C-alpha cells in the first residue's frame, strides 16, 4: 500500500522539497533536532503553493448581491472571521450600513459557491478553502434576492468531475465538424489556432488599422450601427463605440445557457474569427481562446435573438463577460462577477479595439452551435430508434418480410435502405437464432401494422433529413458570418448579409419536423405493447392488472410528449418581424428554431426510452424464450439499470435511466458490432416462405404435396 505524502521543507544545502509521510516527518524531527524541518501549514496550502507571510491569499466573497475581494493575512483566521470581514466591507460600502448597526449583530453562515457546500465557521481558512476560492455569506433572515443566480447552472452535473483537458483541437475556420464542436462543448479539448489562421487574422487586422489611421468612413468601424449607420464617430471615441455596442446589445432574457452550450458557442465564435475575415486582432483573439481553455464562460441568456443581424443579444453577453462585465461561470468559481472569475484564472479582461466588439457579436453562432448539438443528438437517437423498434417487433411477434432488400431496391432512398438493413441485421433468425420467432413460425398472420412494417420508410426519411441538415450545419460552422467582411487580399471591407440566419433556421425547423416522427410512430408501438387485444400480452405489461397499473401512465406520458411536439414543430422561420427601425426588416427567428428543435429531440429520446422499457417488459412475459443475440444484449443492458416490473413502483427514475442509456448511446454501442459484422461479412439474406409473399414456386410445391401447409411468416 502506498502511503500518502506531504512535502516537507528541509533547511539543508539550499533546501528543496522532499516527499515524506507524516510518520517519516515525526521520526526525522526526533532524530534530527539540529536540522530545520518545517511542515507546511496544511495539505490545502500545499495545493495552493502558498505560505502565509509570502503572497497573501485572497477570497472572493458574495454578500447580498455584492462581490468583495477579501485578503486573509493569516492562515489561522477562521471561516467565521472571513464572513465577518466580508460583512464589514459590505456595510462600509453602503450609506445605511446595509441596515445593520454593527458587524457583531449579523448572524450568517458561509458556503462554497461551487457546489453550495456549507462551511464550519470554526475551521481555519487554510484548512477549509483554496486560495482565491469563491464563497458566499448568507445572512440569516434574508430571502433569495430577485437577481440571485444559482451558483451551479443547469447541466452543471456534467462538470462535477471536470478535469482540464490536455489535448488540443487546432482551429483554422475551415475544417470543424459538428462532432468536434459537441466535444469542445463537453470540455474534452482546448483550442489553439493553426499558423495559417494566425497569419490571416493579422492580415485582416492590418486593413482595420489602416481604415482607422486614414479616418475612412466604414460601417461598424467608424460609424454607428443599424439605423445609426450614417453617423460618423470620431477616432477618439472608437473604442468607446465598441464597448457601448456590447453593453447595449446585452439585452437577452431567460435562463443562462448550460456550460456545455456556452462552451460550444464560444468555440464556434473562435472558429469563425480564425477564418480571418472579421478584423479582430490576434492579441484579442488569443485572449478569447485563453478564456475558453480556462472554461471561463459568460452568462448568456438563451432568449433574445431574432437570427439577423446574427445572434446579437447572446453573442453580446458572451463578449460582455470577456470584457470583465456581467456574470461569468467556471468550474472553479461557480457564478461570480466576470472580472473576479477572470482574475482567479490569471486572465485579464479584453479591451476592445475598433471593430472588435462588432467582430465578437455579429454572426449565427448561437443558432448554429445549438443546431450542431441538435443534429448530433438526432443522429444518435435515430440509430437507436431502429434497435428499439426491432425489439418491439420481436415482442409483438412481427415479420421481417417487410425488410426484404428487393422491396427497398425498387424505392432506393438511402435512409430507407439503411434502416431495413439494420432491421435485418438485428432480426435475421438464420444468423442470430430467435426462439421467440421460432415460436410463431406457423401463425396465420398475413402482415403487420404500419408502425412495424413501415419503419424503413418512416425512420428512413428521418435519417435522410438529418444528413441534409448536418450538411448545412457543417457548411455554416465553417463560414464567415460577419458584417462588414474584411478581405485582406483586396485591402477592402464589404457590407453584406452573411449574418442572416435563414439557412440554419430553415434546416433546424425541418430537423424538428423530421425527428418528431420517430416519437409519433414509437408512441403507437407503445400502445400496441400495452393493449392486450393487439399484443397478446397482459394489459399494460403487468401482472395482477387492476391492483397494478403497469405502463398505463407511462404511455400517457409518451402521448403527451408527442402532442407537445406537434406544436413545437410549427416552423419558427416562417415568421419575421421588422427590427432596428426597419433597417433589419426581415429576420430568421432561428434562435427559437434551434431551441425548440432541441426540445423536440429530447422528447423523442424520452418517448423511445418508454418504448425501450415497455419492450423489455414484454420480453418478461415471453420467457423462457429468447430473442436474437444482439437484442438479448440490449435487454441485458436495460436490465443492468432497470429491474423487471413485477408490481407497481415509482416509474419516473426508470424512464430517466433508460433515457440516459439512449443519450449516452449505450444501446447503439451494444448493438453496433452485430450490425457492422453483418455488413462486413455480406451475410446472405434468409428468405423463408411466408403468407405475406405469394410465389408460383410455393403454389406448385403445395399442389405437388397435396396439402395447404402454412409457411413461416414471422422471420
What's this entry about, in short?
The protein has 715 residues and is an alpha+beta fold. Helix content is 47%, strand content 10%. The chain is built from 26 helices and 17 strands.
Q: How does the helix and strand content classify structurally?
A: alpha+beta
Distance between the termini: 58 Å
Calculate Rg over CA atoms: 32 Å
Unreliable spans? 1-53, 706-715
Task: Give me the side-by-side strand order of the main sheet.
Answer: 5-4-8-6-7
The whole-number mean of residue pLDDT values reads 86
Shape: globular
Helix count, per DSSP? 26
**How much β-strand is present in the residues?**
5-15%
Helix content percent band: 40-55%
Number of strands: 17
Q: Main beta sheet, described? A: 5 strands, mixed
Structure report:
The chain has 715 residues and is an alpha+beta fold. The longest helix is centred in the middle third of the chain and has 31 residues, at 365-395. Strands 5-4-8-6-7 form a 5-stranded mixed β-sheet, with helices on one face. It has a 3-stranded antiparallel β-sheet with strand order 2-1-3. Residues 1-53 and 706-715 have low confidence and may be disordered. Strand 9 (168-171), helix 5 (178-185) and strand 10 form a beta-alpha-beta unit. Helix 15 (414-427) crosses helix 18 (455-477) and helix 18 (455-477) runs antiparallel to helix 19. Pathway: Amino-acid degradation; L-histidine degradation into L-glutamate; N-formimidoyl-L-glutamate from L-histidine: step 1/3.
SSE layout:
Layout: E1 6-10, E2 17-20, H1 22-31, E3 37-39, H2 43-48, E4 58-63, E5 66-71, H3 79-92, E6 108-112, E7 118-119, H4 125-128, E8 134-139, E9 168-171, H5 178-185, E10 190-193, H6 195-214, H7 238-249, E11 253-256, H8 259-273, H9 282-293, E12 297-298, E13 301-303, H10 312-322, E14 327-330, E15 334-337, H11 338-344, H12 356-361, H13 365-395, H14 405-409, H15 414-427, H16 435-439, H17 450-453, H18 455-477, E16 485-487, E17 492-494, H19 502-530, H20 532-535, H21 552-568, H22 590-620, H23 629-639, H24 652-663, H25 666-680, H26 696-705
Parallel strand pairs: 4-8, 9-10
Antiparallel strand pairs: 1-2, 1-3, 4-5, 6-7, 6-8, 11-13, 12-14, 14-15, 16-17
